[in-house]
Amino acid sequence: MDINADRMLQVFKNVVENAVEFSTAGQAVMLHLRKEDNGAAAVVCTVADRGPGFRREDLPHVFEPFFTRRAGGSGLGLAIVQKIVAEHGGTIAARNAKEGGGVVEIRLPLGAS
After folding, report:
1. Closest Cα to residue 113, out of 91, 88, 90?
2. CATH class as words, domain 5-109
3. 74/37 Cα distance (integer angstroms)
4. Are 14 and 78 within 8 A, CB to CB?
5. What is the pLDDT of residues 84-111, one digit of tens each?
6. Global pTM value
């Protein structure tokens, strides 16, 4: 599958900007990239912040259109991100880190196009 670079840039820009916005001032936003090969090769990008994390009750809804906790937000950013990732055969998930903060994991398949 071919990767649309502009669309994937939109994905990572949105996810990183969200992490920066929700991160505690002065704390780093961490990006981690790894290759997985447990049957189907994939690249996995994890974006983690040290903010308050996701509310437990919000986790099932963060990728739904129009769902937001951001003042003035449209609630479309993560919904669009999920659509783009799915169009590339990938998945995206949100969770909280054990030590605090939010984590977004994007998994994209690697393989012949």
Report:
1. 88
2. alpha beta
3. 37
4. yes
5. 999 999 999 999 999 999 999 999 998 7
6. 0.89
User: SS3 for 39?
Assistant: coil
> What are the φ and ψ backbone dihedral angles of 33, each rounded to 5 degrees?
-125, 135
pLDDT-derived band at 17 (thresholds 50, 70, 90) equals very high
How wide is the angle at C-alpha 28 spanned by C-alphas 23 and 8, nearest 5°?
80
Distances (CA, A) of 68 to 27, 38, 47, 55, 75: 23, 35, 19, 12, 5
Q: How far apart are CA 55 and CA 43, in angstroms?
A: 27
Measured between alpha carbons, how far is 41 from 37 in angstroms, rounded to an integer? 4
What is the pairing mode between strands 30-37 and 41-48? antiparallel
51 CB-near residues (< 8 Å, 6+ apart): 19, 22, 23, 24, 27, 101, 102
Q: What is the pLDDT of residues 46-70, one digit of tens each?
A: 999 999 999 999 999 999 998 887 7
